[in-house]
Amino acid sequence: MIRTFLLNIFFYIPIWFLKLIFLKKRIPIRGNLFDFQSSVILSIIPKKDLSIIPDSSIQETRELINKKRSEYRLSLKAKNTILRQDHKIDTETSTILREYKPNQIDTDKVILFFHGGGYVLGSIEGHDHMVSYMSENLRTKFYSLEYSLSPENKHPIALGEAITAYEWIISNGYNADKISLCGDSAGAHLAASLVHYLLINGGELPSCQLLIYPMCDPACSSESYELFYENYLLTKSNMIWFWDKFGNDDSKMNDPTFNLLKIDTNKKFPKTLIVTAGFDPLCDEAEEYAFLLHKNDNNVKQLHYPFMFHGFASMTRLKGAHLAVDDFLKEFKKML
């Protein structure tokens, strides 16, 4: 209760005053200093080592995290009313696709969004404020998928549901070139995985995709994993745990819908915008993925925010995160 109260007043405290209260020594890494306001809030938010949680307690952990996420409300809300409608797109699995319709719409295109959470955590409710904010900012209709989580539903079950959602949108009047994909972290992996599936199977590609700090490589062995293995919200041990619950085994290491770095670089991808954060264990693998697309002359752009951390896109009440999100949404809007 006290922590929730402190967080609610935290965002109204000037940063200069925070520096007087919190005498934090910041050490440059790769020539960059971690955003001060972000460093303070990450020291306030409780931390959990997911790797010690047994499968029998995962659902309880999800419920607790969703509750705390709702209490803390770290993401900005839309300023105007956003109309929401939940669609049941698969009667057998009761898969839900939530439609967001902002007050103003500038385009006849729509965006299919996939939430993050390592394929183990997260929900459309937990990302509701984030998606509402993006929908209003872009003046574009969004669809957010409540895909099945691991370890109860390992790869490729979520991919199958993403395919169903994509086909459902097409069946409801949108050509593939009117659809864009978007996701953060595991959701960005799912968006890219869907594109890989469509490329492999000759499907119609979406217009473009925004991949926000995507998880790409199940090896978890890049330099950024060692530099930022803890203290920046996402930890190396938790990331290894996510991949393991998702279905990490040798038989999938060369499957490009699982390991994004195993793509066929001879394929032509839709326009792609990749967002990376300087203090993120996933930074290097996302940059490597961007390079793989770039070297075959695909239309790909990477926007790097050197002072930010993994998860900042859903924490836009932070000043630095707010500026970064508005910046990459401005770039994404040009692609729509």
Report on this structure.
This protein has one domain (2-335): Rossmann fold (3-Layer(aba) Sandwich). Helix content is 38%, strand content 17%. It contains 11 helices and 8 strands. Strand 3, helix 5 (128-138) and strand 4 form a beta-alpha-beta unit. It starts with a helix and ends with a helix. The mean pLDDT is 95.
Task: Give a brief outline of the structure.
This protein has 336 residues and is of the alpha/beta class. 38% of the residues lie in helices and 17% in strands. Strands 1-2-4-3-5-6-7-8 form an eight-stranded mixed beta sheet, sandwiched between helices.
Record the SSE blueprint:
Blueprint lengths: L1 H9 L4 H7 L14 H9 L13 H15 L10 E8 L4 E7 L8 E5 L13 H11 L2 E6 L10 H15 L7 E6 L1 H15 L7 E5 L10 H5 L8 H11 L24 E9 L3 H12 L5 E10 L9 H17 L1
Parallel strand pairs: 3-4, 3-5, 5-6, 6-7, 7-8
Antiparallel strand pairs: 1-2, 2-4
Helix pairs in contact: 6-7
Describe the biggest sheet?
8 strands, mixed
What strand line-up does the widest sheet have? 1-2-4-3-5-6-7-8
Q: Domains counted in the coordinates: how many?
A: 1
Q: Which structural class is indicated by helix and strand composition?
A: alpha/beta
CATH fold label? Rossmann fold
Cα-based radius of gyration, to the nearest Å: 19 Å
Give the overall silhouette.
Answer: globular
Total helices: the number is 11
> What percentage of residues falls in helices of 4 or more residues?
25-40%
SSE run: HHHHEEEHEHEHEHHEHEH
Known CATH architecture: 3-Layer(aba) Sandwich
Q: List how many beta strands DSSP finds.
A: 8
Strand content: 15-25%
Poorly predicted regions: none
In CATH, what is the class? Alpha Beta
Q: How widely separated are the two ends? A: 42 Å
CATH homology superfamily name: Alpha/Beta hydrolase fold, catalytic domain
